[in-house]
Structure formats: C-alpha cells, structure tokens
Here is the input.
Amino acid sequence: EYADAEFVLEDGKYVCGWAIEKMSKSMYNVVNPDHIVRDYGADTLRMYEMFLGPLEQSKPWDTNGIDGVHKFLRRFWRLFFDRDGKLILTDEKPTAGELKTLHKTIRKVTEDIENFSFNTSVSAFMICLNELSNQKCAKRAVLEPLVVLIAPFAPHLAEEVWEQLGHGTSVFDARFPEYDEKYLVEDSFEYPVSFNGKMRFKKELSLSLSPKEVEAAVLADPAAAVKEVSGKEIPAGFKIKILENDPAYDATFVLPPLVSGNISDRELDEVAAGICGMQTCAMDACGVAGNYSK
Here is the structure.
C-alpha cells in the first residue's frame, strides 16, 4: 500500500505534526512499557500511572514526570539505608511531629484507596517523605508502618525493604496500618504576620494562647524587627488585630495607627491597605474591612 509513498518536505525538512489520540496499534502510538521498566523499574511505572490523574478519566501520556517519581522512590529508599546500603533505623521513641506525619498519611492513603483516588495517594506519600526528611526521621516505629502503607503502590521496593528490616514473611502478610485520631489533633497554628499589608514571616504558636499572648510573642520575635518598628516604641494607637473564626483571614495583622473618633475616607482606605493591600475600601463588599466601621 505504501510502496510508492514518499515524505513531503517543507524547505528540505520533514515537519512532524502531533495530535492527542487514544493509544492504538492503528495510530502507531503505543508505548512499550518494557522500555520504561528497563530504565526505571516496574514500581516507577506503576506509581507514575497512578500519579497521572483520576483512575476513571483519560490522561495524556507524558514521560516528563517519570523521572520525578523515580527520584521519589530513591529518596524513600534513603530513609532506610545510607550510601553504603547499611540499614540506619533506630529504636528511638518518635516525636509528636513524626507521629502526626505518619498518621496523617495513613488516614489520607486509606481514604484514597477506598475512593480509588490513587493519584492523590502518591501526592500524600511525597508530602510525607518531605516532612520526614526535614525531621531527619530514622525511627523504626514511624518508617516500618510506612513500608506496609506503600506496598500496594510500589510492591517490589516495599518487599525488599521489608526483608531488610528482618521480617521472614511477605510485606503483604503484615497488618495494614490504621491511623489514630489522637495524633491528628491540632495544638498549634502557624500565624502569618504582616506589617502594613506585607507578610514578613510566619510564627507557629500554641492554639491555647490568648490574643494578648499571641501579640506579645509576635512582637518579641526577632523577625519583627523590621523598619516599621525597629528601634522604636510601639506608637499610641498602633493596633494589632488577630482575626479569628474566619478561615480566609485566620492570621495576625499589624495595622497602621487608627485614629480615634471619626475616620475620614482616606484614613479608612489606609486601614484597608494595611489589612488586605487594597488601595480603596469597599465596605459593603469586603468582610475584613467591614470589621472597621466609621
């Protein structure tokens, strides 16, 4: 059929077009998974296919993200072993932060498996890995349940690590971990602190603190020594407002001085700029500025 076919060239070059089509032999666009398994391993291919998107939806095949999943699995391996392949786990008692990271991941992955939302499970594993790496966690009580948790997603890696941990049976014979709500209770909050409408830093404080205690902790922080207050006493009328019970504005704001008595439109605009950066105040439309009436 194509015995007399020839390429159509443009300026002596063959221009190859592209289109998004379903994989099929007739379109000659089938990707051989053997090549990916050879270069990256079966676990990488398995997790990458899950990571592409919701299971019930069609997704464009793009190999650009495979390397990222492969690096994630290599980083996961380094939680357990050093560069010489020696196991580095300890039997130390885990911290509250490490237990919170573990049980948060267990809850998320358990719910996602039941809903066939495997792509968000992979994201949860990546977040968990970043947090444990920052915490420099090498504790068996935290990492061993994580091996069982990731086994349905990366079975070959999990089986190898499980054996190195000293278990004589398969990782799939182990009991799937369950999360404990007591480790998920929030006892602190990371307050974004802004001076005159510009966020300067974040400070994590206990949720049990009163607004006055939060105010004192923020002003005592070395990061609060910006040019607006550095080397100066807090002027009279300088007000710190902690907005509570509003998820959209759950933060600490340091506002410009408020004038007692009647406030002009210009002064009200300055207050609005200090809260949300708006140059003019729309009292009726803005829930934040609505807290400051004439």
Remarks:
- Strands lie at 188-195, 198-206, 240-242, 252-254.
- The CA atoms of residues 87 and 165 lie 8 Å apart.
